Structure formats: structure tokens, C-alpha cells
């Protein structure tokens, strides 16, 4: 019988007035997701079910950029991406730029368990969701005032042109993607990641969150990883799988592997990166190269840990 453990994140990146104002609510959201996932593990449920449950709690929470509360693309619409991976058999499921699905992580899990495919996108993913009666919601359900304001501000900045506003200001990103990694009693690891993407991004953009090996990876022989930050950098560095390789082939422990990949290998990158990882003994690795990362973990016999800043 293995020790059980779970870690979750709710995005890493710039700090903002909004985050400071709702710090307590964010922390409570992380805590609730941890509790929901931990309960599954405690009742001898699987790591796959635990990460799905934790991510669902964050997708349903309008403060985070996944499910309800997703960022709006350049057309002012919500397109979501999510993935899940089972470290026991390396099976995975993912969806990209899907609309109206209440919990994209659950659709990813259904694809993993019930189809011969690994990855469905856009209309095809929505058709499959309808076929299997996954909960759907109207467009308005996903759009929060906060995300609408961020989108409107970005549009205005774009319109005013980079001559008037420092480029760094335009590029500031307030990532709120969510993810979870878990270890169950059977010693199986799993990871899941879910996102609304980046505010005002090109229609049809797919970041790292649904890309297995980049924003999500799990393998019982090494670790489970969920990433957040600038998707384009995370895809470029094949981040989650690189952490696994650093453990398997460089023999680093989980924290060292996260540090090596984020800080040494990608230290020159200008993008925001945050990762959570868990090894088969239930040790947690957390690294972020930016101002804050909404994060938390819970291990057997220990009090839950929840933090946003350093
Ligand atoms: N990684 C996500 C993406 O690029 C954004 C985030 O982490 O908030 O789509």
C-alpha cells in the first residue's frame, strides 16, 4: 500500500490587483480542490479520478482560467483545452479549443477511457461530448466580468498600439490555468491540466495544457507533472516530459528535476513557467520563475499546504 498525495495549481504568472483582492477566495478555491481530490484517494479511489475531481472543482470556480471563468479569445469567445494522463499505462486523453463543455477534464478522461483516440478538437470534441451526455453550458456561463474586463483591456491596448503603451505591459499575462497531480494507494500516478488559454489570443490557438509531454505528463516510473505559464515556451521545452527525463536519466529527485528543467535548461527564456510534480513516494516538486503561483498540496499525515506568493 502506497502513501497517498495530491498537489494542485491554479496558474502562475504576473501578480495583479484582482489576485491581491481575492487572495483569500483563491486560497479557499485551492483548498477545496485539494480536499475534493484527497477524499477520492482516501477512499481508495484512483489517482486518475482524484486529478479529475480536483481539476473539476477548479473548472467550476469562476476565479480560475478554466471551465467557468475561462479567458476570452480575440473574438470574445471561450475555447478550452484540457488533458489527463494515467501514469500506470501511459494512456491519455485530451481536448483542444472546445466550447460549451462544463468540465473539459472529464471529456478528456472519457476520451482516454472510452475511445481509440487520444486527442479530439473543436467541433468533433463537442460532438463526442453530446454523444456521451457530458454536461454542457451556454456561452454566457463561461464568461465572467473579470475575464471580460481583461479581454477588453487587452483589445484597447492593442488598438492604442505599442507606441503608446510599453510592450512589456501589453505582454503581461495573468495565467490562471489549473492542474493536479496525484498518487493513489496502488502507487499509481496521474496528472491533469485544464485552461481557457490566454486572453485575446488568436482564435484556434492551442497552448501547452492539452499537449501531453508539455503541459501534462504522468509515468509511474518517474513522476506526474502539470504545468502553467506561457504555453508557447512550455511546448518548446516539452516541459513536463523533460522533468520526467531529468528524473529517469539524470537521477535527480523530483524537486531537483523541476529546478533543473525550469531554471537551468530554460533559465534564459523570457516566458512565465510554473510546475507541480509528484514522485512515486509522494514527494512534491514545485518551481515557478514568476511573481506568483497559486498552489497547494496534501500528503498523508500532514496538514494541507496552500500558498500564492513565495
Ligand atoms: N499555459 C496556458 C496556455 O498557454 C496558460 C496558463 O497557464 O494560464 O494556454
Short description:
The protein is of the alpha+beta class and 310 residues long.
Structural overview:
By secondary structure, the protein is α+β, with helices and mostly antiparallel strands. It has a single domain (5-307), classed as (Glycosyl)asparaginase (Glutamine Phosphoribosylpyrophosphate, subunit 1, domain 1, 4-Layer Sandwich). The protein is 37% helix and 23% strand. It contains 11 helices and 12 strands. The strands form 2 sheets. It has an 8-stranded mixed β-sheet with strand order 4-3-2-6-5-1-11-12. A 4-stranded antiparallel β-sheet has the order 7-8-9-10. Strand 2 and strand 3 (92-98) form a beta hairpin. Helix 2 runs antiparallel to helix 3 (47-59), helix 3 packs antiparallel against helix 4 (104-114) and helix 10 crosses helix 11. It is globular. It starts with a strand and ends with a strand. The model is unreliable at 165-170 (pLDDT under 50). The structure holds aspartic acid (ASP). Aspartic acid binds at residues 11, 65, 175-177, 195, 197-198, 207-209, 228-229, 231.
User: What separation lies between the terminal Cα atoms?
Assistant: 34 Å
The percent range for helix content is: 25-40%
**Beta-strand share of residues:** 15-25%
Give me the CATH fold name. Answer: Glutamine Phosphoribosylpyrophosphate, subunit 1, domain 1
Strand and helix order: EHHHEEHEHHHHEEEEHHHEEEE
Characteristic terms for this protein:
four-stranded antiparallel β-sheet, 310 residues, 12 strands, binds aspartic acid, 11 helices
Amino acid at each position: 500500500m502506497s502513501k497517498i498525495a495530491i498537489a494542485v495549481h491554479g496558474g502562475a504568472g504576473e501578480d495583479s490587483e484582482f489576485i491581491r483582492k481575492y487572495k483569500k477566495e483563491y486560497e479557499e478555491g485551492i483548498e477545496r480542490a485539494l480536499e475534493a481530490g484527497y477524499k477520492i484517494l482516501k477512499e481508495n479511489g484512483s489517482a486518475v479520478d482524484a486529478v479529475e475531481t480536483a481539476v473539476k472543482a477548479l473548472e467550476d470556480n469562476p476565479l480560475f482560467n478554466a471551465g467557468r471563468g475561462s479567458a476570452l479569445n480575440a473574438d470574445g469567445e471561450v475555447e478550452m483545452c484540457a488533458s489527463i494522463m494515467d501514469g500506470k499505462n501511459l494512456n491519455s486523453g485530451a481536448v483542444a479549443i472546445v466550447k460549451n463543455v462544463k468540465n473539459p477534464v472529464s471529456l478528456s478522461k472519457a476520451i482516454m477511457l472510452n475511445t481509440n483516440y487520444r486527442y479530439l478538437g473543436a467541433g468533433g470534441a463537442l460532438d463526442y461530448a453530446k454523444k456521451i451526455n457530458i454536461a454542457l453550458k451556454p456561452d454566457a456561463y463561461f464568461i465572467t466580468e473579470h475575464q471580460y474586463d481583461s479581454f477588453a483591456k487587452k483589445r484597447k491596448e492593442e488598438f492604442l498600439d505599442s507606441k503608446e503603451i510599453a510592450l512589456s505591459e501589453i505582454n503581461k499575462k495573468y495565467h490562471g490555468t489549473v492542474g493536479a497531480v496525484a498518487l493513489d494507494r496502488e502507487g499509481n500516478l496521474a496528472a491533469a491540466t485544464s485552461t481557457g488559454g490566454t486572453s485575446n489570443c488568436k482564435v484556434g490557438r492551442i497552448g501547452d495544457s492539452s499537449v501531453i509531454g508539455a503541459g501534462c505528463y504522468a509515468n509511474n516510473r518517474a513522476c506526474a507533472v502539470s504545468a502553467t505559464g506561457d504555453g508557447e515556451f512550455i511546448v518548446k521545452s516539452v516541459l513536463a516530459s523533460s522533468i520526467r527525463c531529468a528524473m529517469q536519466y539524470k537521477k535527480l529527485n523530483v524537486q531537483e528535476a523541476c529546478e533543473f528543467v525550469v531554471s537551468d535548461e530554460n533559465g534564459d527564456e523570457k516566458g512565465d513557467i510554473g510546475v507541480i510534480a509528484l514522485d512515486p513516494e509522494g514527494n512534491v516538486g514545485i518551481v515557478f520563475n514568476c511573481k506568483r503561483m497559486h498552489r497547494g498540496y496534501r500528503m498523508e499525515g500532514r496538514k494541507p499546504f496552500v500558498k500564492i506568493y513565495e
